[in-house]
Design a protein that fits this description.
The protein is an alpha/beta fold. It is 44% helix and 19% strand. It has a 7-stranded mixed sheet with strand order 3-2-1-4-5-7-6, sandwiched between helices. The chain binds S-adenosylmethionine. S-adenosylmethionine binds next to helix 1 and helix 4.
């Protein structure tokens, strides 16, 4: 199997896995998640979306966040994508029944493959990008992060809310939560925050992190620097990315197996 075929298999596995996971859950997803996906509304407020801004949600699921943004700022241009056709069915049903949501554009896409040009037919990158409780379940999180940055304009904000280390909460609660999340393939990624910190140290952008609920989750805002060059390469080159994924997978394993020296913040 060559690199392209191998990548095709990985893509199909992720799509099938997400569709299997959400086929039935999508019917009660929004109702249940409001009790444990904390910080989403605070993040939307902090984004402070302006008229005519072009905003993307990576892995938008049922598009609950985009619907809220549309009500907060009716004159923004809103886009979202997700790996799961099942989640998007719920999103499309909402859009079809509510005229004020009709301008939202949704696509089935993988975070690793996003391109503002080919996915959405746009001529320029997004002003702001949002990713809510998704990087903790995307195995290729680093590629998803890099690809999002490539699709963000210089000076634009990448806003993330996701599970943190629950360090300030009781240990028994933390242990239960970690076990429960792992059943959905979700886990806190200290290496992601280290990676963003490295980018910040290299001058690629500025990072601001806030805790939600005693480090239950975090809100991160990464503002891409005006001169960030490494992430301007446009449409993703499949072959080189496959090569870098292979070496990333190895280095991720090293991080996971070692005792991480740097708990977040
Ligand atoms: C926990 S849900 C969060 C949905 C939404 N962002 C929210 O806040 O309600 C995670 C979403 O990530 C999507 N997802 C997982 N891996 C993905 C990938 N590689 N590319 C795009 N979406 C992905 C899933 O299909 C799912 O809809």
């Amino acid at each position: 199997m060559n690199d392209y075929e191998a990548y095709g298999v990985i893509v199909m596995q992720q799509v099938e896995k997400m569709d299997r996971m959400y086929r039935y859950q999508r019917h009660f997803y929004d109702f249940t998640r409001k009790y444990y996906l904390f910080g989403r509304d605070r993040l939307l407020q902090e984004m402070d979306v302006q008229e005519n801004e072009c905003v993307l949600e990576v892995a938008c699921g049922t598009a609950r966040n985009l619907f809220k943004l549309a009500r907060m700022q009716p004159h923004a241009q809103l886009f979202g994508f997700d790996a799961s056709n099942e989640m998007l069915k719920t999103a499309h049903a909402q859009i079809a029944s509510k005229p004020e949501l009709r301008h939202i554009q949704l696509k089935r896409e993988l975070a690793e493959n996003l391109s503002y040009a080919t996915t959405f037919g746009l001529s320029k990158p997004f002003d702001k990008i949002l990713c809510s409780y998704a990087l903790s379940m995307i195995p290729e999180w680093r590629r998803a992060f890099d690809v999002a940055l490539r699709n963000l304009k210089p000076g634009g904000g990448f806003y993330i809310v996701d599970f943190w280390d629950q360090r300030d909460l009781p240990a028994a609660f933390r242990a239960l939560l970690v076990r429960w999340l792992s059943m959905f393939g979700v886990r806190f990624r200290p290496e992601l925050m280290d990676y963003i910190r490295t980018l910040t140290a290299e001058g690629q952008g500025e990072l601001k992190i806030e805790s939600v609920g005693w480090r239950y989750s975090y809100i991160a805002r990464f503002t891409k620097s005006i001169g960030a060059k490494a992430y301007e390469s446009g449409v993703w080159s499949l072959k080189s990315e496959i090569r870098s994924t292979k070496s990333e997978t190895n280095s991720n394993l090293e991080i996971q197996n070692s005792k991480h020296p740097n708990p977040l913040v």
